[in-house]
Automatic annotation (TrEMBL), chains A, B:
Chain ranges passing through the membrane: none
Family that this chain belongs to: Belongs to the ROK (NagC/XylR) family.
UniProt protein name: Putative NBD/HSP70 family sugar kinase
Domain of life, source organism: Bacteria
GO BP: any one term: D-xylose metabolic process
Gene Ontology MF: a single term: kinase activity
A Pfam cross-reference name: HTH_24
Keyword Transferase belongs to the record: yes
Alphabetical UniProt keywords: Carbohydrate metabolism, Kinase, Transferase, Xylose metabolism
Job of this protein: Transcriptional repressor of xylose-utilizing enzymes.
Amino acid sequence: MKKHDQDFMKRQNRLTVFEIIKNQPPISRASIAKQTGMSATTISRIVGELTEQGYILESEQVSAGLGRKSTLLGLIDASVLSIGIELDRHKISVGVVDLQGKAVCSEVHGHFPDERFETTMMRIGKIVGDLLRKGGIDPARVVGIGVGLPGIVNNETGIVVFSVQMGWKNVRLAELLKDLTGFEVAVDNELKVKALAEHLKGSAIGSNRTALIGFGNGVGSSLIIDGEIYRGDMNSAGEIGHTTIDPNGMLCECGKAGCLQTYVNISSLLLEASKIRQVHTIEELFEAKKAGERWAVHLVDRALMYMSITVNNIVCMYNPDSVILSGELVDKFPDIYEEVKELCSTTLVWEPLRESYRFLRSELNEQGVLIGSGLLAQTRFFTLE
Amino acid sequence: MKKHDQDFMKRQNRLTVFEIIKNQPPISRASIAKQTGMSATTISRIVGELTEQGYILESEQVSAGLGRKSTLLGLIDASVLSIGIELDRHKISVGVVDLQGKAVCSEVHGHFPDERFETTMMRIGKIVGDLLRKGGIDPARVVGIGVGLPGIVNNETGIVVFSVQMGWKNVRLAELLKDLTGFEVAVDNELKVKALAEHLKGSAIGSNRTALIGFGNGVGSSLIIDGEIYRGDMNSAGEIGHTTIDPNGMLCECGKAGCLQTYVNISSLLLEASKIRQVHTIEELFEAKKAGERWAVHLVDRALMYMSITVNNIVCMYNPDSVILSGELVDKFPDIYEEVKELCSTTLVWEPLRESYRFLRSELNEQGVLIGSGLLAQTRFFTLE
């Protein structure tokens, strides 16, 4: 018992020193000692270990005031790498993510909604191997794989409980992908890792309560409280797309009527458009709107209104300090950001909270899930190590 | 710096011992030592202090197994008292709450919506003094006042930022009531303290993510995560009553159209009813429904549907393990509980989460806010002491 406690403390101290060097480079041993209250001996031991393992880069710098030389520490960004994967109905994005959340290299592959789960996994295993080889990445530096996808995911077991968009129910994703690649695998809901990425490396650095909304093939949200993903009881918090807006409304693919997402998501918009004429892509719909075709103007304007209502409902429920708009619709049609912002600030957000939050654009855009998944795998590695 | 740290540790240890005795009575010194890892000397010192201050009751008990006598510790419930106050549009409830969250005595007084804020405060000051005198309560045992009310409350400064129901904007409630009574005053949103009370002493003991919904003169909700109130950035999280359901819907008293609460709250129901005939109380409306009057059946059934939608939207957004129904409507018409439960479990909650939560009745009912406010004042006292 005692022994275990000491090991635990050692690991914790090591992690603390590592995190400080990662977040405040370049930094001196003395500053680390001051911040942590650890002794010079402890810090020397830990820094020694980390240097030996190839994580740390020392540099000599002359401090401005006294002209004395001091040795400063930083991390070698490529000393810890992870693989981030985004799965979507139509595509698979795979990338190598470094300690700073930069995608060192990445690739996008197609995905067919009716492909068997096992086939998809085998393809991913091959894509990962090829990517490491082509990029000249040392597999020994890769600490794990992170996967982000839409749906209900048990982030502890790595089982995808339910994903309409992937067509999966209770598939053991982490287990199978680990067997195929040999890497540890962390799996999570796409919007949760995306919000984590924006919080750590994107537009919401420094925020204590970040809400992220995704508008795309579905509508969802996520919440970061004091740097931690708010998961709810089954890692399903944030499913705003299935909040009911109109009990007499359109049927949703979930079988319930009047879900919020039926007014906003891409497949619903295309399905409604097809009552007038065959529109195959969301780009065609927005072009028809631009050309002033009345039905298209109606559909898009209504979607913008419900996007603003989504913001209002998020603000009322979570009372965040920041709201980030993201997702395929916002990535493809950046004007949406300004239009929704305008609707929110003039009428559609509840007056007492209208000025209570920062309205933000995603900074990582379509790479957010990939980077967030990679960072998740790194976090998991350092916590478990 | 060092000195302050030691004081802090001493206070923390004292609080830890106190909390353990409070939550697990009767308990031996040895059990406390085992749970906390503190030395026998430290525990003896703390228990000695607490006994001297009149908090602790010692009892000798023979343990079942060995027949040895041991001294067990418990708290004297009345050794720490607080005053809990619930403010509502039409009434003021004041009670004395003990350590176990029991209302030792309480009184309900009327409130007129157009009464001046200062007048209300002076009346409350007098009610508190009278109640202590009549109840024979030693003011030295009262550690503070807690106040719960509807609206946006800054729980740190004790300022009521905005309360439509009380007709207040930016009033310094804590400051004025402290001046008038001499007691420390904690102020919070009514549903937040109510959820706290249900979590600590009511139907949600042991839950890690409790959502509470209040249906009454407004519609609101609150969330307890791992024993802590989730406040959001401005203590305004949970304002589900102002989530927009229908942008073309009825005007809400907030000035926005189609807020969820316009379908459910008492004043909206009475206003709609008045299109048919003058109905002065919610009881009259429910009687008309019972008598089968079509317009009343329509209004009440629609309200029940939107209550169920409220549950769905809470479950999708917060993914709680427990949902508690509360508020004047549920207190007055207990059938609502079963009817909403039925609607939720058959159709209106999103299928993947339909079985994910316990559907609970409030246990503390109309005393929830009063008790929660009292417990809030106690928590504040022990944290600051």
